[in-house]
Amino acid sequence: MRRSIATVSISGTLAEKLAAIRAAGFDAVEIFENDLLYFEGSPADVRRMAGDLGLDIVLYQPFRDFEGVAPERLARNIERVKRKFDVMRQLGTDRLLVCSNVSPDTICDDGLAAEQLGALAQAAGEAGVTICYEALAWGRHVRTYGHAWRLVNTVNHANLTLALDSFHTLSLDDTPDGIAAIPGERIGFVQIADAPRMQMDVLEWSRHYRCFPGQGDFALADFTAQVVKSGYTGPLSLEIFNDGFRGAPPAATAADGHRSLLLLESLTRETLQAEQAQAGALYHPSAAPAHAQWQFLEFAVDDTARAHVANWLEKLHFRRAGQHRSKDVTLYQHGSAAIVLNAEPDSFAGAFFQRHGLSLCASAFRVDNAREALERAAGFGYQPFLGRVGPNERVVPAVQGPDGSLNYFVNEEPGQPTLFEADFALTDIDGPVEVGPISGIDHVSLSLPAGSFDSWVLFLKSAFGLEATPAVLLPDPYGLVRSRALMSRDRGLRVVLNASVDQHTAAAETVRAYHGTGLNHVAFNTGDIFRAVTEFEAAGVPLLRVPANYYDDLDARHALDPAFLDALRDHNLLYDRDERGGEFLHAYTETLDQRFFLEIVERRGGYDGYGAPNAAVRLAAQARQRALAAKEAREPQD
Amino acid sequence: MRRSIATVSISGTLAEKLAAIRAAGFDAVEIFENDLLYFEGSPADVRRMAGDLGLDIVLYQPFRDFEGVAPERLARNIERVKRKFDVMRQLGTDRLLVCSNVSPDTICDDGLAAEQLGALAQAAGEAGVTICYEALAWGRHVRTYGHAWRLVNTVNHANLTLALDSFHTLSLDDTPDGIAAIPGERIGFVQIADAPRMQMDVLEWSRHYRCFPGQGDFALADFTAQVVKSGYTGPLSLEIFNDGFRGAPPAATAADGHRSLLLLESLTRETLQAEQAQAGALYHPSAAPAHAQWQFLEFAVDDTARAHVANWLEKLHFRRAGQHRSKDVTLYQHGSAAIVLNAEPDSFAGAFFQRHGLSLCASAFRVDNAREALERAAGFGYQPFLGRVGPNERVVPAVQGPDGSLNYFVNEEPGQPTLFEADFALTDIDGPVEVGPISGIDHVSLSLPAGSFDSWVLFLKSAFGLEATPAVLLPDPYGLVRSRALMSRDRGLRVVLNASVDQHTAAAETVRAYHGTGLNHVAFNTGDIFRAVTEFEAAGVPLLRVPANYYDDLDARHALDPAFLDALRDHNLLYDRDERGGEFLHAYTETLDQRFFLEIVERRGGYDGYGAPNAAVRLAAQARQRALAAKEAREPQD
Fold it and tell me: Where on this chain does a divalent metal cation bind (chains A, B) (predicted)?
C-alpha cells in the first residue's frame, strides 16, 4: 500500500519536513493546514516543492465544524470550504478531510447532517474534490466511524467518502470489526496512529500522546486487517500529534515513522493470514528469528578498562576462555554467558571507545538463520555493517542500532567450527563453561536518552520481533525513570529500556557519561542465588546493601517465612512475587566504573517480570552509594 | 500556624530532604513511608536526625485500605497497623494518616466502616496514637471530606480525627464550604496542595501534577479560610507529588514550598478579613505595591553590545536622555519607556555580563512605597541586594529574582529630585519623552529554564502581588513552549513567562545562550501602530515578515474589512480579537543579537491578552529567519 504521513507528525519548517519525509521512504504526504499557514510562499510553491521531491500530496486537512448547523450558517460554511478548494487546486490535491462537528451548538439531527453533507458533496463534485468525512472521538454528536458511515451512506454521493483514523476508534474502545463490511471504494482515506493507554481526556490524549504504530498499546494490526478486508487500496497515512516528536530532529522521526508502517503492515499480514484472508500489497519482511539468544556482549575497552572489567569478571568466576586470532580481543565465559573485551584501537570498538569510553559497543545474537535476520533488519531500514575480518575468521553480518552500536547475527552450523572456534584461540573446546553458579544472561538493561526510547522500542520490535510490556515509571530519589521491557516469545532474549524523565537520576548520569549510549546493567541467571551471592561476596564482589526497613515492609506485604526473610536480609537479596506464586530473587553489585552494574537473578515458578516493585529501593541505595563516593572524592583521605 | 511539608514533596535522600526542609524555614515535617523504607538506618535514627535539625515529625503516612473489609481481614489490618505504631514510637510522632480504602472489594456499608474505624481508634488509643482519616478523591466508597467526617463523627473517639487535603476536595469540585462547621479539634491534620486544572484521571493528576499553592489553579485561600474558621490550629502541611520537583534540587524546591505557604496564609488572611472573620495566626506580609509600573529596564552590556543595542533604540526613536554621574551607564527614553545600558565592569551588571552576555540584568519598578515593597519581598524569602552607590546618588532597595537578576523598588517623592535626576546628568528635565509613537512598556516576556517556571510564578505573585492567567502551550516548529502571563490588578505591570518543553525551540536556545536567564522580548505600547511600524521601518528597523497565507486564514476566521486586512498585510501586523470586540494589533522586529526581539502593540477596546493565537505564526517566522541566518553563516558570501 502507499505509505503517507501528515506534516504535523514531525518537527521543522515545511521544507525540512517534506525533505525528511521523502528521505525516510514515504511516497505521499498529508498537508496539515497550519504548516501551510506558516509557510512563506504560495500553495503552488508547496506543490512544486513536493513534486520536486517526488512526493504526492494525497490530502489537505482539517476542515472543521461543517455539518449539523443552522441553515443560515450553512451558506457561510460552503463559502469557507470553497476557499479551501481553491487552496487545494493550487496544492494539487483532490482530497479534503472534514472532521465531525465539535461545536456545542451542533444540532443533533442525522437527517439535517446528511442533507448538509450532501450539499458539501455537491460543491465538492463541482470543484472536482473528494470529501473524506471523519468521526472525531470527541465530536459533538458523531463520534464513531459507524455513525459517520451511516451519514456517508445515506448521502450516497461519489464525492463524499468515509475517513478512518485508528486513534478515534481505538481510544473509545470502539470495535473496528465493522470496517470490513464497508465497501473499500467508499473509504476515502485511512489515518493510523498508536498511543499508550492513558486515563485522560481523549482530546488531550490525542493531541499530545499519539505515537507511531508499535510504540503504543493499540491493537493496530487488527484495525488494519479490517481496512484491508474492506477492499480499501488507498494510502495508509500516519497522523501523529506527539509532544516529543515536535521537539525531535525530523529525519530520525520520519525514518521511525516509515519503519513503523512497515512493521504494522507485516503484523497485519500475519493477522490476515491467520484469518485466511487476502493480505493485499502489505510489506512482507524476512521472518524474525524464532529462537534468538545472546551469543556474547562486547565491551569497548582500553588497557585500563580491560583490567578493571576483567577483575570484576574473575571475581564473578568468569573464565578467560580465549584470545582473538588477529585482534586485541579477549573472551570470558561463565555458563552460556560470554563477554568479549575489545581493546583493538583500529576498529569499530576503538572508535566507539574514543567517543563513549568503556561501553557496550556490540551485542551478538545466536539465531537459526543469520542471513534472514540481517535481511529483516536491513529491510526495516537499519544500516548493515561489515567490520574488518582476518584470514579464516568468520564474516558476521551486523546492523547498527539506534545508538550506533552493532548487533551481530550469528548462526552455528552443525559440524562446522563455531564462531568462537573460528575467531579465537580457545583454552578449551567451545561450549557452556560450568565454572560457577551463573547459567547465562537473563536480561540486558539500557539507559537511553529520553528522545531515543521509542526508537529502541521500534528497533527491537521490528528487527528482532520482540514483544513489549507497557511502560512503567520508577522513582529514583532524584527523579523519575521510564522503563519498558521487551522480550522474545520464548524468553531467550529480554531487554529492559530505561530513560530518565529528569536530569539528576543515575540513569541520566549514565547517559551523559556514555554520550548517548549506555548500558545500565547486565543481569545473569542463576539456579541458586544464595550460593551465587555467597561465592561472589567471598571472592570480593561488593554487593549493594539493602536497608533493613525494606525487609520489615516486605514482611508486612508478603508475610514470609521468618527463616526465609532472614536469609534474604543476610544476603542483601530483593524479593518479588507474582499473582500466580512465581518468585524473583535478585541482588545487585555496586556500580562498576561509576556507571553500570551487574545483577544476579533467580526466577522461580515462571516469574516473568523484573522486580519493578524493588526498583525504588535499588535506586535509593545506588543514590546513597553515589553520594558517599562523591563525598569521599571531595574530602581528602587521612 | 505551624508550617510543615511531606518528605515526598522534594527530591534527594532523606537526610538531604530534612536539611533542605529545615533550611527553607519549616518547623515540622511529615515522613512519607517510602522515604523511611529506603533509608539506611532505623526510625530512631530519623528521629535524631530531625531533632538535631529542630524539625518536629508531625505525621507518619500513609496507611492504606483499612476500613470496610471482611471481619477476618480486620484482625490482619489491626496487626499491620500495630507494626506501624511501633515505627511511629521510634520516630517520635503520634499522628498516622489513614486513607480511605481504594480496594475494589471494599464493602459499601458505613456502619461496618465506622465499626472498624472504632476498633482502629481503640488500638490507637492504647498505643497513644491519633488516627487522621482522609477521604481520597478516588476512594472506593469514601471520597469526600463530608463522608469521612460522618464516619469520624459517628465513631466519636478522641483518637480518631479527620484529615483534610485540599487536592482531594478541589479536584472533585467538591465545595469546602462545610469545613468551617466541623469542630476544629476534631480535625487532626490539614494537607495543602495546588494543581493546574487538567482533564485527566484524578489519581494520575494527583500523583504527577500537584504543585505548591499559587502555582496552580485551585481556590486555596477559600479552602484555608474554611479551615481557620473551623478553629483548627494544627500545622498546614504541603503534600506535593510533582514529577518536576522529584527531579529538581531540593533546597530551591523547599524554599519555594515555604514561601508558597506564606503566600497562601496572606491570601487567606485577606479572604477572612473580607468575610469579617478572625484571621488567626496567619502570615501577614507588607502590602503589595498598589500601582507598580516599570521605571526602567537595565541591560548588562560591554562596548560592542552597547553600540548594537543603542543603534536599535535610536532606530526606534529612543532618545539618549542621560549619562550616569559615577558609572559607565547610559539612559534611553521614549514615552515612559526607559532603557538603561550598563557597561560598568566593576559592578553587578559587569558580573552579570561576564556570565550571561548581553542580557536583562535588572528591572526597576516605580511603586508608592519602596521600603514596604522591599519588606514584602524579603519577607517572602527573596534576597535583598545593595549595590555600590556614588556620592549624592540615590540608594535604591532591590531583591534578587529567581535567576539572580535585580528588582529595584523606586518611589519618587513630590518636590524631590527623581531617581534619574539624582543619578544621571540628564539632557533635559525628567519626564515622559514624547519623541515618537511609543507610549511605554506594555509587557516583558522572559524565556526561562523549564525548572524555574513555577518559581517565577511564585516570585511575581508573592513579591509583587501579581495575578496569573492559566498556562497555555504554544507550538514552535521545533517543539512546544509553555507560556503564562502575570499582571497587576491595574495592568501597570504585565510579565509573560515562557519555558520550552523541548530542546530545539527558539525559547530553549535563548535560555542556553543566556545561561539560565533570558529576556525573550520587550513589548512597547503605541496608540497608533500603523504610524509606529511605518516610522520604524523607514528608520531601518527590520520587521518580522508574516506569510501571506496567515492573512487569508485571518480573513476566513474574522471576516475583516478588506481595506483593513490589506493594511495589516502591508505592515506585517498580526491581529487578534477577543469575545467582547477588544482588538490587539502587533508587530515584531527581527531578533537582536540572535536572542531577543522587540514587539510593538496596540490595544483597542480593553483587549487584555497577548495575541496567543498568533504565537505559532510568529515562532515559525522566527525559525525561518534563524534557519536563513544559519545558512548564510555556513555559506561563504560571494
Answer: 134, 165, 191, 239
